[in-house]
Write a structure and sequence with these properties.
Strand content: 15-25%
CATH class: Alpha Beta
Order of helices and strands: HEHEEHEHHHEEHE
CATH topology: Rossmann fold
Shape: globular
Length: about 200
C-alpha cells in the first residue's frame, strides 16, 4: 500500500508536471504509477524487478538513459551498491539544477527499543532478538551520514528532516501515529530522514 504521507512529500517536492522523473528502487512500481497519473513522465528502476514488468530491472550505476529533470528515491539509496559509483551516475542522469527527492532510513539511530518495537509488530519474528535485527540492518544498509557524503560532491543537500520510519517494517500505516506518539514521548528514536538535493 502506498503511504499517502510519502506520496504527498514527493509530489510537493517535485517540479510541476510534466517533468521527467527517475524513480530509484521502485519496487513494484506503485509510486511510479501514482506519479504517472499526476502527469509526470516516469522511468522506474529496481534491480530486483521482474524482467517483464513495468519497472526496469537495472542497477542505478548501469542505467544508460538520460537526462532527467528530477529523481526520487524512497527508502532505496541506503541499499544501493556500489554507493560512490551509483551517486556519481545519479548525478550524470539529472540535469544541472535538477531536484533529488530522498525519503530515507537512518540505520545508525536504530537501538534496542526500536528493534524491539518492530519485532513486536511483525508476525513470525518472535524468536529474533533486537540485537540481531540491529546487526542485520547495519550490515545491509548504508548509514545516512555515508549516503550524504557520497551525494554531496554532486548535490547541494538540504538539512535532514526527521520523522517516523519503523512503521514501514510492519505493513500497517495505522502504526505511524503510534510511532509518532512514542517518539514525542522519548520512547523511540527518530529513524526516518527526508532531504532534498539540487544537482550542482
Amino acid at each position: 500500500m502506498l503511504d499517502p504521507g510519502v506520496l504527498g512529500f514527493v509530489l510537493e517536492s517535485l517540479p510541476p508536471a510534466p517533468a521527467r522523473v527517475l524513480e530509484v528502487g521502485a519496487g513494484d512500481g506503485e509510486l511510479a504509477r501514482a506519479l504517472a497519473e499526476a502527469g509526470y513522465e516516469v522511468v522506474a528502476i529496481d534491480p530486483a524487478a521482474a524482467a517483464d514488468g513495468p519497472v526496469r530491472a537495472v542497477e542505478l550505476h548501469e542505467l544508460e538513459e538520460a537526462p532527467f529533470d528530477t529523481a526520487v528515491a524512497v527508502v532505496s539509496m541506503h541499499h544501493v551498491r556500489p554507493l560512490p559509483d551509483s551517486c556519481r551516475r545519479l548525478a550524470e542522469l539529472i540535469e544541472p539544477g535538477g531536484r533529488l527527492v530522498l525519503d530515507e532510513f537512518d540505520v545508525d539511530r536504530v537501538d534496542e527499543r526500536a528493534a524491539g518495537w518492530v519485532l513486536s509488530h511483525v508476525d513470525g519474528h518472535e524468536r529474533r532478538q533486537p540485537s540481531d535485527v540491529i546487526a542485520d540492518l547495519r550490515h545491509h544498509c548504508h548509514p545516512l551520514s555515508e549516503l550524504r557524503l557520497a551525494l554531496e560532491p554532486w548535490f547541494e543537500l538540504t538539512e535532514t528532516v526527521r520523522g517516523p520510519y519503523l512503521y514501514r517494517f510492519t505493513e500497517s500505516l495505522a502504526l505511524r501515529d503510534v510511532e509518532e506518539r512514542l517518539i514525542a514521548a522519548g520512547s523511540l528514536p527518530v529513524t526516518g530522514a527526508r532531504m532534498l538535493g539540487t544537482r550542482r
